[in-house]
Amino acid sequence: MIRAVALMSAGLDSLLAARIISGMGIEVHGLHCTFRFAFGPGRERPQALAEKTSAMGIRLHVADVTDPFMDVLRRPEHGFGSAVNPCIDCHLFMIRRARALMEELGAAFLVTGEVVGQRPMSQNKPTLFHIEKLAGLKRLILRPLSAHVLPVTLPEENGWVDRSRLYGIHGRGRRPQEALAAEFGITEYAQPAGGCILTDPFYAGRVKAFIKNRGQESLTPETMLLCRFGRHFWIGNGLWVVIGREEKDNAALENLSAGRWVFEAEDFTGPTALADTISGPDEAALVASMLARYVNRRTGDRVRVRASRGDESMRIDASPMDPADLEKWMI
Ligand code: SF4
Q1: What is the mean pLDDT of each run of 10 residues along the chain (331 residues)?
Q2: Both ends of the chain: CA-CA distance in Å?
Q3: Which domains does the chain have, with CATH numbers?
Q4: How far apart are CA 250 and CA 267, in angstroms?
Q5: Which of 132, 145, 204, 315 has its CA 20 to 30 A from that of 7?
Q6: H helix or E strand, kind and range, residue 144
Q7: Which of 45, 87, 115 for mutating ligand 1's site (highest number of atoms within 8 Å of CB)?
């Protein structure tokens, strides 16, 4: 039996692509890549996807690719899109991961849900061919949804798949995919979003501020995750302070506090603050007064703040900082 690997996001297009090929009697293995900073440590999404693919007779392989992907983020060969989204390199990275799985399973070709013209940066024909060539999979990537607007691939030429049962979908419209989903009885699927969190300009502003101050090589999965939560401040001398905005931020900050200074008010309720480096008591006092601005207190109250990192700790008697001063540092 011919075997294929299908790259699967949690979206409809890759589900359809895999379904089309498995419907031709080919043994399809799905590969779903996850990033800890993009979706958090939860496994709900892969689980939901695995249930759908198993109903189609497709075994899903889930790979946490966060650590190797950091090199792509630190040095994207084809650069970033409008935010911190290295889309071309990200596609190439995933296709290379899929190629490794193909080799492991002895699969003959790769299936993707790419649709020509759907995403301007990474799903135009020249880019698709360029990626294919760089990944060493020339003519071995089958895009069932757009096959009729693309050159014939080896799986079609060799008769492994029936080209007449493939499609010629292109552009940004969703109607053809929705019609196909109805035909296959796929009723539950995620609505397409504009891209992953790396395409979010607000998030990107925080990541870029980190890169500017600490350098691209210092980016870690934890940094990327931290950029999702709370209020972020960069102070002139390179001091980075993150202050929780709501309960879930404070919980996330606690989880990401290893090796960082944690600031909390002792006598009042309020957020948690994190600082990755503190040069001495003056900086600690500055962070404490930033935090004091956000605690629940009466006007005029001073705030006792406890700062700790591992075994080290200090107490600071802080008065709240003027909001105007805070704002000028906020990202
Ligand atoms: S939108 Fe995000 S996940 Fe999709 S290709 Fe771009 S960087 Fe990768």
Answers
A1: 94 96 97 82 71 94 96 95 93 97 98 90 86 96 98 98 97 94 90 81 96 95 95 93 95 95 93 94 95 86 93 94 92 93
A2: 55
A3: 3-184 (3.40.50.620), 229-327 (no CATH)
A4: 17
A5: 204
A6: none
A7: 87
Determine whether the shortest distance from the Cβ of 38 to ligand 1 is under 6 A.
no
The whole-number pLDDT of residue 39 equals: 56
Q: What is the pTM of this model?
A: 0.90
Q: Are 262 and 272 in contact (CB under 8 A)?
A: yes
3-state DSSP: the chain helix, strand, coil percent, rounded to 5? 40, 20, 40
pLDDT at 42: 43
By C-alpha distance, which of 266, 265, 211 is closest to 238?
211
Ligand 1 and 303: CB distance under 6 A: no
User: How far is the C-alpha of 196 from the C-alpha of 38, rounded, in Å?
Assistant: 7
Q: What is the pLDDT of residue 148?
A: 98
Residue 304 main-chain phi, psi, to 5 deg: -85, 125
CA-nearest residue for atom 5, ligand 1, is 87
Cα–Cα distance measured from residue 50 to residue 62, given in angstroms and rounded to the nearest whole number: 9
Tokens linked to 271: 């957020």
Contact in structure between 286 and 268 (CB atoms under 8 Å): no
Q: What span, in angstroms and rounded, lies between the C-alpha atoms of 74 and 81?
A: 14
CA distance 269 to 88: 46
Which tokens hold the place of 293?
A: 């601005």
d(CA 119, CA 11): 14
Is the distance from the beta carbon of residue 198 to the nearest atom of ligand 1 less than 6 Å? yes
Measure the CA angle with vertex 203, ends 201 and 205; round to 5°: 70
